[in-house]
């Protein structure tokens, strides 16, 4: 699959699986009244993580999705966000966990958290599979982080380049030829 496009495997399928279980256990342990969690997955990148994470949780959780688009170039976000698909229901009084694929500048998430907080959930936390170095400087509370990764563009396990590579079971870095050939 995608022969030659992937320069290196940064996080293997096995490592992802183990981390998803570990995160699910942590989140479950932190919620004594478990069974009432509402997961909010951010489309499309978080879809693989969301489905694996939900199934790894020892107690039932409900699933909601949001799609947002950040104005700006394709490689950096501006912090100005537009909702493409909103939640289907009210989250007031719910224990919400936002499930994200990756936090880079943190601007998208920062906007999203303000937006969700205004809907008065009982609690609001973030669980992200990946975090890049710049995110650490932004004042966004992220309780659960799978992997801190280097400042490189990564694909796979939901993450795309021009809508490709989301279906890879691992996280990898792209061969620069992919950016330059326009393929
Ligand atoms: P910010 O900068 O607001 O943006 O935290 C996070 C969003 O940017 C995208 N993003 C990536 N997508 N590989 C990707 O496929 C990457 O390495 C990458 N870095 C940032 C992603 O959509 C994320 O939600
Ligand atoms: Mg993307």
UniProtKB/TrEMBL annotation:
Its EC number is 2.4.2.8. Keywords: Cytoplasm, Glycosyltransferase, Magnesium, Metal-binding, Nucleotide-binding, Purine salvage, Transferase. Its cofactor is Mg(2+). Residues 14-161 form the Phosphoribosyltransferase domain. It comes from the Bacteria. It catalyses: GMP + diphosphate = guanine + 5-phospho-alpha-D-ribose 1-diphosphate; IMP + diphosphate = hypoxanthine + 5-phospho-alpha-D-ribose 1-diphosphate. One of its GO terms (molecular function) is glycosyltransferase activity. It holds the Pfam family Pribosyltran. Pathway: Purine metabolism; IMP biosynthesis via salvage pathway; IMP from hypoxanthine: step 1/1; Purine metabolism; GMP biosynthesis via salvage pathway; GMP from guanine: step 1/1. It is found in: Cytoplasm. It is an enzyme of class 2 (transferase). Belongs to the purine/pyrimidine phosphoribosyltransferase family. This is Hypoxanthine phosphoribosyltransferase. The gene is hpt.
